[in-house]
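Box S1 | Example of a co-folding query
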Amino acid sequence: MSLSLSWSVVRVNTKFEFKIARSAFSHYNRLILELTDGQYLAYGEAAPNIRYEGDTKEIVAMLDEKKPQILELPVDDAETRQLALKKMFPDSFSLQAAIDTVFWDLYAKRDETPLWRHFGASKDLAISSYTIGISDLDAIPAKIVEAAPYPILKIKLGTDYDHEIMRTIRKETDKVLRVDVNEGWKSIDDAKRGTEWLIEENVEFLEQPMPALQLDDIAKLREFSPIPIVADEDSVRPEDLKNLVGAYDGINIKLMKCGGLTNALKMIELSQKYEFDIMMGCMLETSIGISALAQLGSFARWLDLDGNVLIADDPYLGVGNIGGKIILNDKPGIGVEPR
Ligand code: MG
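Box S1 (continued) | Returned holo structure for magnesium ion
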């Protein structure tokens, strides 16, 4: 039976304003895809990020234009599909991710298998972190209270009062802390100074301390730092990884950066080759995007899959998150349905 594709733009509101080194938002527009063959209904999501591409409106225009070609993509040949998507939407990786996901979901639903099982992954996932965005110092204690169920916190830095943020948080909690600077430390001297006090505050790893492509500086920082350094803005697509050898200990895989599960699988394979520790992260995504990447979650050492729990009005139900423990279900595909 022939396929039919539809989409909608959904506005989701965050529980708190979500602020990082370069932006602050309290709501986001997400593109939701539905693909059906008449028997099974599959889901995909695009959560475009302004660091990497245009907004939802631009994506919808691209979808409109390419709909007939999308419907001709193969359900059971991910490699061919990914090559075609790369040509169709060379600059929109979240749209590639949405389409790749919706096809994988349909594929596994037809097979009546959860995708994690199809990928040879397991339901045994590391505990995910919970993100503490940037805020004024006096708002931090309330944020730590809000994060009470989560044993691992990821702290966003990249301000001119980073050290005060870390000291304030450490006063409130002795939980495992990870730090994400989102390219905020511009010079090697700033980065070394920052790393020195992160050592004092006992941080598990440091994500993207310096601007992407400043790889010589990051390699120097890595020699200096006993804390592992993880690439995020530098680790976008599979072809980036070979350039990161020597500069980073680990890489952060996100569907919305790499273009979907097919490319995420490639990044996992390459991480084994280049000996990178694997982190998996997300944008502010509904349970569609989060559940999709969670299917590969057991391949990661570190998880940061909290996008759906930062949303106040997630329209979908998929993986659970109990105190950072991501619970995969046994439903076919990505295991998602409308709430
Ligand atoms: Mg990051």
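The mean pLDDT is 96. The radius of gyration is 19 Å.
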